[in-house]
Amino acid sequence: MKELEIPEKNYLLIKGAIQDDATQERIINETLKQFGRINTLVNNAGISQKSAADPNSIESLDAIYEINLRAVYNLTSKVVPHLLKTKGNVVNISSAGSQRGTDSFIPYAMLKAALDHYTRDLALKYAKEGVRVNAVNPGVVETNFIGRHGIPTEVIDQMRTVWAKKTIPMQRVAQPVEVANLVRFLASDEASYITGTTMAVDGGIWAGIPSEL
Q1: Which CATH number fits domain 8-205: 3.30.9.10, 3.30.1330.10, 1.10.4030.10, 3.40.50.720?
Q2: Rounded Cα gap, residues 155 and 163, in angstroms
Q3: What's the pTM value of the predicted model, to 2 decimals?
Q4: From which residue to which does any coiled coil extend (predicted)?
Q5: Distance (Å, rounded) from C-alpha 10 to C-alpha 173?
């Protein structure tokens, strides 16, 4: 935050396991204490697997469910009463993988698809009250998201180059700011008539694979 020259009064850092009730309560209470209200909830915490050994194991399924879906459901349920007061909104960070079949990260893709459905359900539930709910579905992004799960550096480098050129129409991975720009838009009043949608930031993955690739 200091590198971005954002004043300390404008942000709040809370460390903890997002799936724990105590952490969620701290997030809500300390946010209200510092800022007085909650306008937007961005559900961004997530994992893709429990370990590099087997991303499709039942252990991975349980771990991903706890963080990527249950924690989102639980925290959102606690924040909604505050969003009703501010006519706020929710932005769920899903994945381009939610709409495509995969044989490598099955639990991750399956639960992101469930998150997309939850986004639509919640949007319908609170539309009349003026609370909007949308999802952003990134493709591969230039972050350490995959690396922190023990995936070898050489494999990640290959994803950024060879794999990206073969499977992404724009032939490159996304930069974090390209995802953040859409999140910011959906959270703003400029998106006041948008709710219940899932928007991809994936370089064209959802469109398909061009024949020349």
Answers
A1: 3.40.50.720
A2: 10
A3: 0.90
A4: none
A5: 30
Q: Which of 11, 65, 73, 108 is catalytic?
A: 108
Say yes or no to pLDDT of 195 above 90. yes
Total residue count of the chain as it appears in this document: 213
* Average pLDDT of the residues of the chain: 90
Q: How many CA atoms are closer than 13 Å to the CA of 38, on its beta-carbon side?
A: 23
Q: List helix spans (H) across the chain.
A: 21-35, 58-64, 71-86, 106-126, 153-158, 164-167, 176-187
Dist. CA 100–CA 97, nearest whole Å? 5
| pLDDT tens profile 129-171 | 999 999 999 988 887 766 665 666 777 677 677 777 788 888 8
